[in-house]
Amino acid sequence: MREKLTLIKVGGKIVEEEASLRQLLDDFATLTGHKVLVHGGGRSATRLAERLGIESRMVDGRRITDAETLQVVTMVYGGLVNKNIVAGLQARGVNALGLTGADMNVIRSAKRPVGNIDYGFVGDVKQVNAALLSDLIGKGVVPVMAPLTHDGTGHLLNTNADTIAGETAKALAEFFDVTLVYCFEKKGVLRDEHDDNSVISSLNYADFRHLAEEGVIQGGMLPKLQNAFEALNAGVCEVVITQATSIKGQGGTRIRL
Amino acid sequence: MREKLTLIKVGGKIVEEEASLRQLLDDFATLTGHKVLVHGGGRSATRLAERLGIESRMVDGRRITDAETLQVVTMVYGGLVNKNIVAGLQARGVNALGLTGADMNVIRSAKRPVGNIDYGFVGDVKQVNAALLSDLIGKGVVPVMAPLTHDGTGHLLNTNADTIAGETAKALAEFFDVTLVYCFEKKGVLRDEHDDNSVISSLNYADFRHLAEEGVIQGGMLPKLQNAFEALNAGVCEVVITQATSIKGQGGTRIRL
Prior knowledge:
2 copies of one chain form a homodimer.
Chain A: E1 4-10, H1 12-16, H2 18-30, E2 34-39, H3 42-51, E3 58-59, E4 62-63, H4 67-91, E5 96-99, E6 107-111, E7 123-128, H5 131-138, E8 142-145, E9 148-150, E10 156-158, H6 161-172, E11 177-183, E12 202-203, H7 205-214, H8 221-233, E13 238-242, E14 253-255
Parallel strand pairs in A: 1-2, 1-11, 2-8, 5-8, 11-13, 12-14
Antiparallel strand pairs in A: 3-4, 6-7, 9-10, 13-14
Helix pairs in contact in A: 3-4, 6-8
């Protein structure tokens, strides 16, 4: 029988505030089975950029990453945020290993082509090399992944943490029964966007199509769920959309094919 | 027969200038056998601290590390310098893995007790856990180690890169035939400090004692060599003191018991 693995993606807000980070690390440490943590760090990057007099430019929530900004995110995502999480997990008995996509060539990406917008040093994931990673996981190591990848020719690239989580989950599905957990600010996928307690507890593809046609699911949730079903089609067992405070529980929306 | 491993320590100056970094990575990539790179990054840390309006205070070449400075070195050593080296080595076909001592609990340290000087968040190495590390090295992974450790209770600590190199070499000597290479600005240990070409090509402990008594070896070289002999006594096969530009060759001072 294949072993279970839980891959949890948390946004910057959770890991950048001391109290919520402590809670997350406490909860994450008690999760049983193999696990992986993927984190953001955008707010800290914006803050450091500000202190250095570097303007942060965002388009549709994506950071335009010029050469100076790439240095900022390399320092913040790969250094400050990642290593503090690793040290915090080690203190809780979790044998964490901080990684960017460059480390062990785990995630190879390509610089996003310049279209209407030039995102700069932003990478689209091309390949996840999960063999060494799964080997380490099997030995009890817990990867903590920063949203940075590399292009194989010496350049680091800023890469969306949701994408890193999804692509890594798919690659690890070759070795483990993977549950992919996306933490976000709401309790799950809502039936009524004005009612935080109207969480849809489980969702399959037929339900999703139906609710999307009815307009119940709309806006930013549509691509999120399309990505979830793509991960399921690629071998991930289950995708959960929930709050960071609920990663231990049964809350949120559980998505299966 | 045990396999050979070369552990190379380079200071900040080499890895912080683009041309010398490129040369180092080219040379390091062509080294045969297992290998490990330990790097500094002090000049970049000082530069970032300056831009952030944080004063850099040094005592005997050691950085006083207050809470803000710890953030700076975590960003610079663990993020900027480390991940750029990793990406650069990956581009040269070297399967590099960037590490701090917190990652996989590789190096546990204790905050230096406050004596005449309060160094702040500086760690003295207590334990190197080389089992997982040697396992990865055996699989072709090349660790790239930043001068940061952790205390096991969630705190990262700034740690001297020479010490990290020496302690890691000793721990890896349980698994490999280790050559420890310290790169510094001179070509090796000099017979005449005013003649850069007066390199002592090989040195054993009897020679060392003799030359130290004669006053030929003195000053900062004395503790460096004492550390070298300590590493040899702990199982390291050979210590080489040389220039970063000579890591491929037979130059420098080769030290054996």
